[in-house]
Write a structure and sequence with these properties.
Length: about 200
């Protein structure tokens, strides 16, 4: 078990430095899902400071997790946190833009929590790395409640574009014939896509 102190330090760091980390409801949902479905190999797109990677790996001693991060400051912080949690044997960090990473391994579960504007590209690129009965889980499907808003009410142009991309991703998941997706109003909204 990872010490509560380490988790608290990561949360405090995230708050102070404006690093988005998964909400409590979201991580609890993921941890339950990993436990119930006996998931052992996980790929995470978007490490940030290693918060969700550490908490997902902590579910069971035989979980192996690979996580990809392109921001150097966050990547270095994640390395520090993973060492503190004594998980460097089980968490493999890759410092690169996820869209430039080619993986040989296959995974039981893929967790997408990176640049929201790239969700479709991440999904299409990494679904090849998923086992036959695997699952892709995407966070921030509600994006702070803005996805259900009328886009015209959002003042910032960049934010409007981003929300539009998340809406498009939702449609992409609903219409994807290879996967069945369920949407959950948990944390900041989760999509659970299972290969048919």
């Amino acid at each position: 078990m990872v010490e509560k102190k380490i988790i608290k330090e990561m949360r405090d760091y995230a708050n102070l430095n404006n690093v988005p980390i998964i909400l409590d409801e979201g991580i609890n949902f993921l941890r339950d899902y990993i436990k119930k479905n006996n998931i052992k190999r996980i790929l995470e797109i978007g490490t940030a400071i290693g918060y969700s990677a550490i908490l997902m790996s902590d579910v069971a001693e035989d979980i192996i997790l690979t996580s990809i991060e392109r921001d150097e400051v966050r990547y270095l912080e994640a390395i520090k946190n993973i060492k503190k949690a004594n998980l460097e044997e089980r968490i493999n960090l890759i410092f690169k833009d996820a869209l430039e990473v080619d993986l040989k391994d296959s995974y039981d579960m893929i967790f997408i929590d990176a640049s929201k504007a790239q969700n479709i590209k991440f999904f299409e690129k990494f679904e090849k790395s998923l086992i036959d009965k695997g699952t892709i889980i995407t966070d921030n499907m509600n994006f702070h409640g803005l996805v259900d808003e009328n886009i015209e009410n959002i003042e910032s142009r960049n934010l409007r574009q981003l929300v539009k991309k998340i809406k498009n991703y939702k449609v992409f998941l609903e219409e994807n014939e290879m996967f069945i997706t369920e949407f959950f109003d948990i944390g900041d909204g989760m999509a659970v896509s299972k290969r048919k």
